[in-house]
Every structure is written in C-alpha cells, then in structure tokens.
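R.M. (postdoc): so does anyone remember the format we settled on? I'll just put the structure tokens first.
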C-alpha cells in the first residue's frame, strides 16, 4: 500500500485477490450531459482521472454504457498503461438509447458484446471485476438472474473476467448469484436516507464481500436534507462530506465511489470523507433514515 493510499480515508479492502482503497472514484460524470456524448472539458476529465491516481485511489468504477464508450476511452487515454495497483471495476447489463434511457441488455449475446467492448475501450485483456446490472432506472426488480449471470461465469472461465459482482440487485438475486459463483461486491443505491440494504450490508460484511453504494445523496426528502444540513453546519462541513464519512463509518465493507468532473471537487470529497463523526453525530444521523 502506498503512503498516499494509506492516507486516504477508510484504508483498504480486498475484492477477491485485489486490494483497493475504500475511497474510490466513480467515472460516470466524466461523460457529457445526462451521461451522453463526450465531456465538455476533455482536458479537465483527463486531469481528474490522473489526480485520482496521484491521490492514491486504486479503485475506479466505470461502464462502457457511460457516454457510451467515451468514459472508458478517457480512462484508457489518461491512465494506460495502468499502474499495477490500480483496479478498474466495470458493469454490463444495460445499454443506452437515443433518448438517454438505460434499456436492459442482459441476453447472452448482449453481455458477450459488452464484455468485448469494455476490454477494447479500456485496453485490457482481462476485466478485473464485472458487475451484472439488474433491475431498471426505478431500482432493483424481482426475477431470476440465472441466464445472464451464467453467461458472465462462462466468460470468467474463458479468462476474460477475473471477479464477478452484481448491481441494482435484490437480496434474493445476490443469494442466487452466490449459489452459482463467488461474488466480490454488490453495488446498490444506499445512503443515510435510503437504508433498505442495512441487513444485506451486515451479512456481506460477515462474508468479506464489499458493498458499494451509489447516489450517496440521492432521494433525500426536504426534511431529511435539512436534518443532514443541520449536522453538517454544526461540524462546519458540507452535507456531502458528512454523508460520505457516515458511509465509511457505517461498515468496514462499504467502498465509496463518488463521482465528479472537477479536480477541486475530487480533493474536497477525499478530505470530506475523512471527517470523524462522534457517537452523538451518528445517533442524530441515524434518525434520518429511520
């Protein structure tokens, strides 16, 4: 572990045999508006990726659907050949339409194509971690993942994927995936206001499996936002800092992937996540999602 990554908030976690910083970076915001097209500031996007690595971040989350393709191509341009310590996690199972929607693409041929496109655009021979994205834009939806996940297991056997995970999944789908092959992470929406995965997080922690929340500030009601702002004001911090720090303190298996297209904001997020919350702060924050 480099001195830089040792100083990042939260320390490290192991995804299978890959050691990553618990504070990672989500590349979704590097594409254009609505995650479509190239970034308005290409040099700025490349600078953010290089700064993430310079800060010691060793976990970058992406998907070839971002852009589509543009985000992965930026990662390759900014960072290839990749340092041995850097691990890129991608996802398959959704594509983009002309309206900017995210229609599912989970047929075996869709998934095989998506894995190949991720490999090409990232400039890799093996994808280190691939998450199968389930559900839809409204969130997880019930139903079997067997056919789709089996396709990824086969690609793993062929050496194109090293480790598997699931995203936007129900607890039942997580269990179904685990019955088919080992998984190293689950990526779902979760934050102070949305605590539906509390039980799942604790179960995964016991099993040594990472939980990667997206939308750390998504879906707060005005009342919940004002409660968070009150705590943040008392601590002389931003609501985002408090939300990220709370996630890191919530459970040791939680990995953060906040996104930004600004170097200054990236540094603010790193500093903010290192905020130390007292027992009193945690009790007050706990009430937000209850």
């Amino acid at each position: 572990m480099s001195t830089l990554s040792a100083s990042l908030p939260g320390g490290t976690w192991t995804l299978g045999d890959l050691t990553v910083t618990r504070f990672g970076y989500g590349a979704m915001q590097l594409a254009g508006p609505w995650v479509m097209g190239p970034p308005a500031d290409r040099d700025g996007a490349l600078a953010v990726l290089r700064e993430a690595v310079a800060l010691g971040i060793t976990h970058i989350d992406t998907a070839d659907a971002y852009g589509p393709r543009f985000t992965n191509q930026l990662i390759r341009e900014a960072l290839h050949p990749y340092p041995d310590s850097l691990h890129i996690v991608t996802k398959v199972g959704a594509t983009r339409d002309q309206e900017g929607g995210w229609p599912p693409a989970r047929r075996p041929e869709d998934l095989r194509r998506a894995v190949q496109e991720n490999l090409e655009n990232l400039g890799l021979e093996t994808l280190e971690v691939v998450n199968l994205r389930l559900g839809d834009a409204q969130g997880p939806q019930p139903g079997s993942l067997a056919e789709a996940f089996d396709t990824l297991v086969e690609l793993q056997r062929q050496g194109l994927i090293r480790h598997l995970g699931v995203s936007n999944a129900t607890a039942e789908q997580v269990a179904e995936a685990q019955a088919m092959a080992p998984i190293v992470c689950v990526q779902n929406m979760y934050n102070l206001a949305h605590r539906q995965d509390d039980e799942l997080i604790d179960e995964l922690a016991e099993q040594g499996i990472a939980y990667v929340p997206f939308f750390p500030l998504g879906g707060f009601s005005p009342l919940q936002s004002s409660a968070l702002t009150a705590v943040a004001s008392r601590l002389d911090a931003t609501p985002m800092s408090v939300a990220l720090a709370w996630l890191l303190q919530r459970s040791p298996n939680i990995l953060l992937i906040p996104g930004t297209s600004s170097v200054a904001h990236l540094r603010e997020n790193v500093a903010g996540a290192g905020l130390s919350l007292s027992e009193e702060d945690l009790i007050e924050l706990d009430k937000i999602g209850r």
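R.M.: ...and that's the designed sequence above, right after the tokens. Also worth knowing: Strands lie at 12-15, 18-21, 25-26, 59-61, 87-92, 127-133, 161-167, 185-189, 210-214. The mean pLDDT is 96.
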